[in-house]
């Protein structure tokens, strides 16, 4: 297997992590989470989303979060938006970059935003061009890129075509989202190879969920296929609030720990991430799925002494 | 990455899975679990262990379990033993094969059996020779092969030397145990390569724990390095009862599901495994860590309709 010397982790716990939480999190606590992540050395944070407060009540304070977080030099604070109205709010609020997503699954896209994939893609093209014209970077996410519960597998050609159109419209980066946790390692490698072949040198991010226990195995297969950018969330929280049992993102601490063990640089400080995990666990009042925050680093005796 | 066309899964939930459970499981329920696993199509079951009932009370009924399980043709029912007395009991009880283990970590081995690695290895050599002389197969497990919380990493040469001695004594198979979940993918590949180079053609099993979230990633790296035999437990239960937070084995259903998605044959029936998961969850009265039994197969709409 081939592994990169370095990967870039995008922290999505403030947005993908919290959006499905049923109890309201205060703006103060969201700001504290983002600031803790910045302090961990992360290069990119998905800070919030500019969506309808009716659709996702947890993100109703997106403007306040953006105005109150500490903007560390070198950290890109991106935000997710579902449409042009959201993009305009995000630009106004000072986001460094905007993430627009379109599901490769027609039915999945309809259930999320009541439009076909083609309708959303056309809107995304306009959104990307307009946002770029205002001097703000845009990344395009192809959601359900590895399959959906409705249509089954998605043809790689469909994903490649969507990515190509978003890049042509001005997207500076592409992300492939395994929204409902359908991906498996062989398929991950195949889709990444197809995208990298069609769009050589594209800035490609991978967004996996651990729905069926394959999150970290998919990361490994993705690295072997040439990917170096991964979304992850503290504690492995997260999941689409419109889906039952979508399970969390891959866990940031566990990913950083794996990389440390493998000699792959991430730039993140595991101790600060564990602190962020403790903060989130106390905030949400339950143990989170991430393992390293509980088990500790490999080969450290403490795990035996606390029995 | 290279993947095999087929892997062999050894089911360890009746032994490694249950041994650390604090509440007594009835012999009837243990027998039902083993029989369910046999019905799933598994080729090899780690049915019980012949240890001191004082050390591991849960395994006190090893003889009764062995006498009451249904012995399906084609299934190897192996048992774990810590010493020659256990091996004699196991042979008497009709085990198809005996697993003897020695920890590569001196301190780990002392804490388990109050002997140095060298003392246990010498006893294992005698045990292997005597058991083989009685016509019963023996496999040697090198525990803590990937590191321990006491000494840190274990030199691959030490593991290779232990494996070589057990094979020379008559062990028909070798397993590498990541007893406390220290392994990471690059190291997994390196150690497997070292063992396969030193002992070409050896029947090599891998026993991973998911302590730090790397169980399935380690399986993937192991496959790429040429391994085709893996231990796993229904629901991902298990862990050394003497260790705090040792976390479960990799989950059988999740592994089988991954293999199905990747076109790797296992011979196991996922539906029967999910039934075994349900049985274990009701027996233990808590949700188990395995994911697929809850999320269902990939790309199946049911997971959305039950929200």
Automatic annotation (TrEMBL), chains A, B:
PROSITE patterns: PYR_CT (PS50991). InterPro entries: Aldolase_TIM, HMGL, PYR_CT. Residues 7-274 form the Pyruvate carboxyltransferase domain. One of its GO terms (biological process) is ketone body biosynthetic process. Keywords: Lyase, Metal-binding. GO terms for molecular function: hydroxymethylglutaryl-CoA lyase activity; metal ion binding. The keyword Metal-binding applies. It comes from the Bacteria. Pfam families: HMGL-like. NCBIfam families: PRK05692.1. Belongs to the HMG-CoA lyase family. This is Hydroxymethylglutaryl-CoA lyase. It comes from Phytohabitans suffuscus.
């Amino acid at each position: 297997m081939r592994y990169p010397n370095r990967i870039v982790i995008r922290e999505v716990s403030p947005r993908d992590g919290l959006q499905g939480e049923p109890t309201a999190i205060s703006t103060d606590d969201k700001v504290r989470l983002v600031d803790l992540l910045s302090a961990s050395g992360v290069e990119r944070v998905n800070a919030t989303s500019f969506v309808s407060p009716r659709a996702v009540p947890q993100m109703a304070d997106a403007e306040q979060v953006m105005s109150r977080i500490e903007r560390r030099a070198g950290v890109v604070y991106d935000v997710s938006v579902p449409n042009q109205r959201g993009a305009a709010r995000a630009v106004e609020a000072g986001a460094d970059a905007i993430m627009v997503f379109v599901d490769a699954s027609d039915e999945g896209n309809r259930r999320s935003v009541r439009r076909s994939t083609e309708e959303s893609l056309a809107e995304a093209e306009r959104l990307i061009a307009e946002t770029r014209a205002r001097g703000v970077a845009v990344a395009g996410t192809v959601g359900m890129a590895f399959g959906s519960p409705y249509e089954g597998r998605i043809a790689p050609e469909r994903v490649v075509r969507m990515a190509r159109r978003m890049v042509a419209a001005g997207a500076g980066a592409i992300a492939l989202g395994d929204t409902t946790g359908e991906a498996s390692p062989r398929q991950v490698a195949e889709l990444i190879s197809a995208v990298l072949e069609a769009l050589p040198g594209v800035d490609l991010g991978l967004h996996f969920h651990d729905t069926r226990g394959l999150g970290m195995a998919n990361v490994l297969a993705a690295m072997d296929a040439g990917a170096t950018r991964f979304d992850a969330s503290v504690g492995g929280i997260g999941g689409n609030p419109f889906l039952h049992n979508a399970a969390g993102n891959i866990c940031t601490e566990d990913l950083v720990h794996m990389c440390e063990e493998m000699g792959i640089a991430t730039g993140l400080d595991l101790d600060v991430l564990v602190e962020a995990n403790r903060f989130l666990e106390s905030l949400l009042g339950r143990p989170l799925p991430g393992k390293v925050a509980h088990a500790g680093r490999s080969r450290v005796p403490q795990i035996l002494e606390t029995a």
